[in-house]
Amino acid sequence: MRVFVRVVETGSFSAVARELGVGQPAISKQIAALEDRVGAQLIHRTSRSLSITQAGSDFYAAALRIVDELDAAIAQASGRETMPSGLVRVTVAPVFGRLYVVPCLRDFFARHPKLHVELVVSDRALNLVEENVDFAIRNGQLVDSSLIARPIGATPLMTVASAAYLAKHGEPGAPSELETHSCIIFIGRGGPRTWRYAAGTVHHPKGSFRSNDAEQIRAAVLDDLGLAQVPGWLVAPELASGSVRAVLAAHAPAPLSITAVRPGGRRLPTKVRVFIDFLVEAFAREPMLGVADS
User: Fold this and answer.
1) Is residue 117 a contact partner of residue 275, using CB atoms and an 8 Å limit?
2) Residue 120 region, left (φ>0) first, then alpha (ψ -120 to 50), else beta?
């Protein structure tokens, strides 16, 4: 079962053979024996590649839990901590992953050399069970109550513009004054996203540019196209340098939560717990991420 898990994680019989110091035929024989015992093909093999079958995907999810629970039981019985190992699959939005997750991985791997991380990058909320994802990092309000959530940070929701734009067009003093400004609009699945402010004030932004991608919204702000309402982490370096400024601070809404969510009804694997713990620690050092109560 351990061999099967590692073959799925690495996508290679030969890689697992090198890890274990055996020949590739030995790995192939173990997988074949496992398939005979299960009574189903778990991995589809060709001369150039391998892929997991649907039966294999279901078995993999169960095998992960069993292997982790066995390791935990051995550690408890022996009175020692075992070093966590294996693959952690995390889904994250593209820009957040690039700016805040990837940069901290070198320190994580130095601390946990037997762990591997796979980032599944997507702007949409994936089905964690169907995608065999261990946990997701999500910004804002959660809608799926079946997930187990742990707050790992928080970020201010800010109305921002470049210093050059504000120098040319002036700074709004209240949300009502946004009507005279060009707004950069984020398009979600439900259409243009409204801007929220304290006391329940809502602004419907109008402007010449819109996008469904945070990276493009950020680029438009930096190119002086107008005002945008964004999570503070998106423009943190520019806010620090002064090239981007926040406006309407007195009307700012509540911060956005940053949450690690995982499927319910499962024991939390050690490898997942240590990665989430590490992210809490790493995010605490980021001024625009803060730390929510965990």
Assistant:
1) yes
2) beta
Spatial separation of the C-alpha atoms in residues 21 and 257, rounded to whole Å: 45
CA-to-CA distance for 270 and 252, rounded, in angstroms?
38
Give CA–CA dist 25/23, Å, rounded.
Answer: 6
Q: Are 5 and 64 in contact (CB under 8 A)?
A: yes
DSSP code string of 111-148: H-TTEEEEEEE-SS---TTTTT-SEEEEES----TTEE
CA 248 to chain centre: 29
Q: Whole-structure pTM over 0.70, yes or no? A: yes
pLDDT digits (tens, 9 = 90+) for 242-290: 999 999 999 999 999 999 999 876 668 888 999 999 999 999 999 899 7
CA–CA distance, 111 with 107 (Å, rounded to integer): 6
Q: Give the largest CA-CA distance in the chain.
A: 72
Angle, in degrees to the nearest 10, between helices 2-10 and 24-38: 110
Q: How far apart are CA 139 and CA 283, in angstroms?
A: 13
